Amino acid sequence: MCFTRLKARFAENRFSQAITTLAPITFTRQNLRPLVLTGFSTLTQITSSMIFPILWGQAVADLQDEQDSQVLGIKTTAMIAAGAYYIGYSMSNVSVSLQNWAFSSVGPRAAGKLVVRYLDKFLHRSREEFENESQGKASNLAFKPYMTVSPILTAGFIQIAPALINTSIAATFVAKWNGPSYGLVMTGTVIGLSAFSAVMVPHLVKKRDYQLKTGIKAGEGISFFLTRFPTIQIFGAEEAELKKLRKYVDDDAEANAKINAFQAKTNLGQNIIASMGYGAVIMMGAYGVHTGKISENQFLVNAAYAGSLVGPVTNLAAGTQELVSALSGLKDVISAINTSSKLVDAHPSAELKLLPKDVTLELRKVCFRYQPKPDEKKSEEKITDEKKAGEKKTQEDVLHDIDLKLPAGKKIGLVGASGSGKSTLITLIPRFYDATSGEILIGGTDIKKIGVKHLRKAIAIIPQETALIDGTLRENIAYGLVGIEEEIKDSQIMIAASRAGLDSLIIRHGLDAVVGESGIRLSGGEKQRVAIARALLRKPLLVLGDEVTSALDSRNSEDITAAIDAAFADTTRIFVAHRLDTLLNADLIVVLKEGRVEEQGTHQSLLAINGEYAKLWQKANEKFYASESHSMTLFKPQTQCLAQVPSGDVSLNIPASDGIQDNTVLQKIVVV
Prior knowledge:
Number of helices: 23
CATH architecture of the domain at 117-338: Up-down Bundle
Helix content: 55-70%
Structural class: alpha/beta
Shape: elongated
Largest sheet: 6 strands, mixed
Strand order of the largest sheet: 6-9-10-3-11-12
CATH class of the domain at 117-338: Mainly Alpha
CATH topology of the domain at 117-338: ABC transporter transmembrane region fold
C-alpha cells in the first residue's frame, strides 16, 4: 500500500512528469551526435576540474622544494607550475564552451516536438473541450515549450548533473587525503545547500504558479483590449476597459516583483552556505599546516578543491531555481498532453463502407447537454439539494429523446425557432460533440464504432460563412481534400469548381489568383460556391449544411440552393435553415421545438396540419422584401406563389382577377 502511494505521488510529481514527457523527444537519433559530444565535453570538464588542483599543488610544491629547484632550476619549475595551471584552466573553460555549443540544438528541437505534440492533442479534442478553454490560455500554452524546454534541459544536463558529480568527487578526494573531517565539511555544505533549497523550492513553485496565472490573465486582457478596440470605442468604454486591464497588469507586475525578490533571497542564502563551507575548508587547512598535520602542498590542493566546489555549487543552486521556474511554466502543457480527450476513438481503423443508396441516418433516444465550464462547475458543487440539482440538469438539456429515421439520398431540412437544438443536432453526427445518451447510426452502424477520421472523411459540411485560407483559388478549393489525398489534380478541381458554378470566376482570374486580404475579394455567394466545390471534391456520403444561405441576399440564396441541390442530387443531405423557402422542395422537414421533435413531413403536409411549422412559415412570410430592379413573388398562408408583379412601388394594387381576393392578407413578398 505504501509503495502504491509513493508510486502514485511520483507519477503526479511535475518533475517525474517532465522526465517521462521530455525523455522520448530529447534522446532521439537526430540528437545523438550533440548528446554524445555534450557527454564527452562534460566528462572532460569534470576530469580537468579534478586533476587541476593536484597538478597545481604539486607544481607549487616543486617550486618550493630546494632539491627539485636545484635539479630543474627555479625558472623551469615555475614554467611547469604555470603550464599545469594553464592546462587545467584551459581544459575546464574550453570544455564548458564545447558543452554549451554541443547542447545548443537539443533544447529547441525538443521544444518543437513538444509544440507539435500539444497541437496534435489540441486538434483531436472535442468541440466542448475547445470551447471550455480560454483561447488566450491555449495560445499561451502552445508557445510555452519554446520558453521552458531549453532551460529545463540545460539546468539538468549542464548545471545540476555536473555539479553533483563534481562535488561528490571533490569531497571524496579531500576526505581520502586529509581525513574524514574535511570530507564531512564539504559534504555538509552540499547537504545544507540542498536542505535550504528544499525548504525554499515549494514556496518558489507556488509563487511561480501564481505568477503564471496572473501572466495569462494579463495576456488575455491585453488581447481582448486590442482585438475589441472598435467595439470599445463605439460604446465609449475606454476608461472602463482600461481600468480592468490595469488591474490584471498590476497583479502580474506585483507577482513578478515578489518572485524576483524571493529568488534574490534564495540566491543570497545559497551563496552564504557555499561561502561558509569554502571558508571552513580553508580555515581547517590553515590550522592543519600550523599544527603540522598536513603539508603546504595538501593545503593548496584542499584550497583548490574547495574553490572548484564554489562554482558547481553555485551552478547547482542556479540550476535548481531555473528548473523549478521552467517546470512551472511547462506544467499545464504536460497536463494537457497527458489528459485524455473526452472524444474517445475506440475503433480508429474502422471505415464507413457504404453505397450512397444505403446512407440512412437514424437517431435513437438521443439526448444532449452542454457541460458547464470549469468555473461553472465550482458553482454547481455548492448545490446540495437534489431537487434543485435535477432542475438545473434539465435546464441544461438541449436535445431530449430525439428519435428520427432519415432516408438515404434525400434532402432533409431541420427547422425551428432559435435555441431549439437544430445546429447542435448536426454537430453530433460528425462527433464534434458526443451525445449525452442514445445512439446515432449511419447505414445501421453506430458512429462510435467508426474511426473518427473515417467518419468525418465521409461527411462534407457547408458552413454558414466559408472561411478562406491564405492562398490561391486552387488551394482554397483543394482544401476540401486536405488530409484525405496527398496529390489533388487540377482536373478534379476544375470539375468540382464547374459543378459549383465557379466557371466565370476562374475565367476572370484563373486558379492561381490569390484570394483574401492580399488578393481578390470574393463575394458571399462566391465563398459559398467555394464551399460547395470543396464538398464535391470529397465525394461525400453525407452532406450537412448549417444556415448555408442566411448571410446571402435573396437572389444569391436561390442560386446557391439550386447549386447544392444539383450538385448533391443523389446524396443524403441535411440542412439547418431559418429561410424556409430554401426547403420548399425538401423530401422531409423535421421541426424541432425546445429540443424535441415536434413535427415531420413535407412542406405542404406540414402546412396542412397548421401546427408549429405553419406558425414558422407565417412568421417568416410577414417580412416584406422589395427591390426596384426585380419582380416580386407574393405568398399567403398555406399557399405558394400566387402572382408576380413588377416592383418599384411599395403600394401594390392587385386586382381580384389575378387570383387574389381583396381581403387577402399578403404574408410575404420575395425578391426573385
